[in-house]
User: What shape does this take?
Amino acid sequence: MSRIILIGRNIRFRFLSNILAMVITFFLFPFIVGHTGKELYGVYLLVMTVAGYFLLLDFGVGAALTKYISQYQGIGDTESINNIISASFSFYILIGLVAAFFLFGCSMFFNFFFSIEAKNLVLAKHLFIIAAMSSLFTWPLNTFRGTMQGLNLWDIEALVNITAQIILACSAVIIFIAGYGIVFYYIVAQLLNVLSCILFYAVAKKRIFFKVSFPYLDKKTFRLIFKFSSFMFLSSLVGIILFQVHNFIIGYFISLSAVTIYAVAYNIQNYFRTINSAMGAPPWTIASSMEGKSDYDGQRMLVIKGTKYMSAVFLPLVIIMLFFVEPFIGYWMGRGFQESVLPARIIILFWCFNGIIELAGGMISAKGLAKECLYIHIVAAILNIVIGIVLIKVIGIVAIALGLTVSMIFIGAPLTLRLSLEILNISFVEYYNKAVKSNLLLYFFVAVFSFALLRFFYPKNIYYTFFEMTTIYIISLAFYYIFFLNKIEKTEIRKLAGIE
Assistant: This one.
């Protein structure tokens, strides 16, 4: 299977999996709340939030596992793949034990930190105990999820995820209608996760022979993993500051209601993050495989062509939302959220830049330069916080949006792109001419079309809003395909889309 077909297939299935998860969550959320009540579901969310923080115990090993398996597969080094899998599995068994210990502790001392009624405390204890027991299995078995990704089997992983999501959604309907409650629902969710990972093991084992050794304590292998993973872990922590510290700043300096108003703007850009990551992850593992083969020409071609095609698909969504964000928020959230519009526009704006550097940033990680990415994230995070704190008393929540956007446009995006082009030996002029310039007319067309449709046919409700946005997007991509691509590029696009 050619690289174009493989990348296209993986992106399509991963994108479908992410979109399906969003849709299921959208409909499942009010259904579960309706059967449990706000208070019980709030306890469930609180427990899940606490349990979610233990995911930081990964320490970036998952990213290292995926990278090195892909890299060693590129040169057919089965022994090194065995070493990486065995080391990761041994590490995750230890982390599973640690997580289980602390989660079990939370079941006993949760009420020391949160004021909670007796009946809800019983529910919280049960959920924590289930999470603790699940950790003993899910942590080590997640080794094989990373193995699937490293073997570039994103499409199979997505199919398994899609199946699990549908089964869980159907199970939720049966469980809550039958009156079994949220504890039973959580048990089913954890069982599906375990079964999915067991299936990943079987598929990966069939695709490439490997043997898991336990305990595996080779210092050289662990040194290799943590040399990369430690910086990925720290980058994740900085990312939390960069994208999630805003709630604390807004809540402290303004009010809790302002947190909700800002959350509307933030959630819109979060959808762009989901879409962008779904498109960018599969090419990253292909690039890691190329790194193993020392196929640097292939990496250069991937980042140039990939950036051109991916940004042509992604940036029109960003531009359309920039114009339609006011009616979108107005009809989606109703009255009282007009203050969310300007922050939303400011945050969405940085995706016009970030959407162009997704593959370039992934190439840095594929080459193992996690330390350099960490430094860029730290500088961007500091600027983000400083701008937010200094201006929040003057311009309110707009300051938080401004801090995020300015830090990404003037620090994150240019420094990431510069580093990527430097390690790939690509000049900025070449990158601009081959990956960006030819798409500029498309972006202009989308902007003019959006302005005209909004000006003369302002949508009447949320359904008209979606219809007009979708119409602009489809017509723009058709316009791009017909008039902007040559014969070879059209063939590549059809292969990426799975048409041929």
Summary: The CA atoms of residues 251 and 259 lie 6 Å apart. The two ends are 12 Å apart (CA to CA). Residues 245-495 form one domain. The chain has two domains: 1-231, 245-495.
